[in-house]
């Protein structure tokens, strides 16, 4: 291997490591540091900035944060709490199902933050280690991004795949069914193989004696804001409008032809329209939207995608020919290797959309996939869920939030990087979703 390539890899991984160590928005900052070093020191041409992904995330966050300020997100969480408390014995299945559904509807996994105290409380009331339902919910929220009609990752992938003969409803159907079944099967397997008796956990007993564990009881209080239900209704109608419009302009359906407003522009304008209606009709003060947790975390995500994806694109573009040759050979021989590539790339790039944006064009070129030769495109559909390996490094916000909110101490990060509560459920969920994808996708191409 050439010394220059070694140095470039060191810069790539070093910048990502610095960002992870600093945490939060600094992950994106460190991406910029990596681009500067690769460009000015090692002579690499900066790659493309994924503006489409960034703008879709920004538009979605604009609508969701307006809904949060109107009380809509709290209303959705209260409804979900009732579901969780109605059948506490099934918390290991209801927690990931609710986390998955909230992510599907909202287009962001950060919606599960508000559910975490409820999950911990219900699990304690059933003498179940909270680590089991919490880890399942966090993983389900990450994999749910690959099935949400308003997530940047799904918008990008459907835009790439439609010219290859895939219609939008088929793609959404495959990704929704495979990810949900994977989450439920993972919950079943984890419940079987994990010791769940909370009273027998030594760390829990120590914290209980020290008075660090709260009694089980009601978590969420307060009345709904006047515009809460209306804001949820506006947002859900917008999600439905996104699905219907994307279906209507799909190349195989063509209910709207010619297409004046392309899908990306339509989705962004729909979401901004929803934000406008929520702010206007629900009497939300625009200045307060900037203080919502969703807006802050969402804008952090935009900066992270900006920096890290730009860094990844810079490295990939600089070695595109070599990557195409190697990737083409590997994936042709073993299609599941694409899932492995997605898995490790998302672990480093920290974003489902950024991973897809960096890897998919290279794979399409390497395999010679085109509208005239679309057969191998089923691999992209089947492996898409594998871009969700954001749980591998224990630094992702929802993962850290789950650890902090579990006062029993059962949700924890070990001394080694990978021995944490989320690793096994995450790997299982992705493996099952990809396996199901390889069953369904070839049948529907």
UniProtKB/TrEMBL annotation:
GO terms for cellular component: plasma membrane. It comes from the Bacteria. It is found in: Cell inner membrane. The keyword Cell inner membrane applies. The keyword Cell cycle does not apply. The chain crosses the membrane at residues 6-39, 51-70, 90-113, 134-159, 171-193, 230-253, 265-282, 294-316, 336-366, 378-396, 416-441. It is a multi-pass membrane protein. Keywords: Cell inner membrane, Cell membrane, Membrane, Transmembrane, Transmembrane helix, Transport. Pfam families: DcuA_DcuB. Its main location: membrane. GO terms for molecular function: C4-dicarboxylate transmembrane transporter activity. This is C4-dicarboxylate transporter DcuA. The lineage of its organism: Bacteria, Pseudomonadati, Campylobacterota, Epsilonproteobacteria, Campylobacterales.
């Amino acid at each position: 291997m050439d010394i220059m390539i070694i140095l470039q890899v060191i810069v790539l991984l070093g910048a990502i490591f610095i960002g992870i160590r600093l945490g939060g928005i600094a992950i994106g900052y460190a991406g910029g540091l990596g681009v500067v070093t690769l460009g000015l020191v090692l002579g690499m041409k900066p790659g493309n900035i994924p503006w489409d992904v960034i703008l879709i995330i920004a538009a979605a966050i604009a609508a969701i944060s307006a809904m949060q300020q109107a009380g809509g997100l709290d209303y959705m969480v209260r409804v979900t709490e009732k579901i969780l408390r109605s059948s506490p014995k099934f918390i290991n299945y209801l927690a990931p199902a609710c986390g998955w559904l909230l992510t599907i509807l909202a287009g962001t996994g950060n919606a599960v933050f508000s559910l975490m105290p409820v999950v911990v409380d219900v699990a304690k009331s059933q003498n179940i280690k909270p680590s089991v339902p919490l880890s399942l919910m966090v993983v389900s929220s990450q994999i749910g991004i690959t099935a949400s009609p308003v997530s940047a990752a799904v918008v990008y992938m459907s835009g790439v795949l439609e010219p290859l003969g895939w219609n939008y409803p088929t793609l959404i159907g495959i990704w929704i069914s495979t990810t949900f079944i994977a989450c439920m099967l993972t919950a079943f397997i984890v419940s079987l193989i994990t010791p769940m008796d909370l009273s027998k956990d030594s760390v829990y007993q120590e914290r209980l004696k020290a008075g660090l564990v709260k009694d089980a009881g009601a978590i969420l209080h307060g009345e709904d804001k006047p515009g809460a239900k209306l804001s949820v209704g506006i947002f859900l109608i917008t999600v439905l409008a996104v699905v219907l419009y994307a279906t209507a302009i799909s190349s195989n359906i063509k209910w709207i032809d010619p297409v004046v407003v392309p899908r990306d522009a339509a989705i962004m304008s729909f979401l901004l329209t929803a934000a406008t209606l929520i702010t206007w009709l629900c009497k939300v003060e625009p200045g307060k939207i900037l203080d919502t947790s969703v807006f802050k975390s969402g804008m952090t995500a935009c900066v992270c995608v900006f920096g890290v994806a730009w860094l990844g694109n810079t490295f990939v573009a600089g070695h595109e020919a070599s990557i195409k040759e190697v990737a083409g050979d590997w994936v042709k021989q073993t299609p599941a290797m694409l899932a492995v590539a997605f898995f490790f790339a998302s672990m480093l790039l920290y974003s489902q959309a950024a991973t897809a944006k960096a890897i998919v064009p290279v794979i399409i070129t390497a395999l010679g996939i085109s509208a005239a030769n679309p057969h191998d495109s089923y691999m992209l559909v089947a492996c898409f869920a594998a871009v969700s390996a954001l749980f591998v490094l224990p630094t992702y916000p929802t993962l850290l939030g789950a650890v902090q909110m579990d006062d029993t101490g059962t949700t924890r990060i070990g001394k080694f990087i990978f021995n944490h509560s989320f690793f096994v459920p995450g790997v299982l969920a992705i493996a099952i979703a990809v396996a199901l994808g390889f069953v369904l996708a070839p049948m529907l191409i």
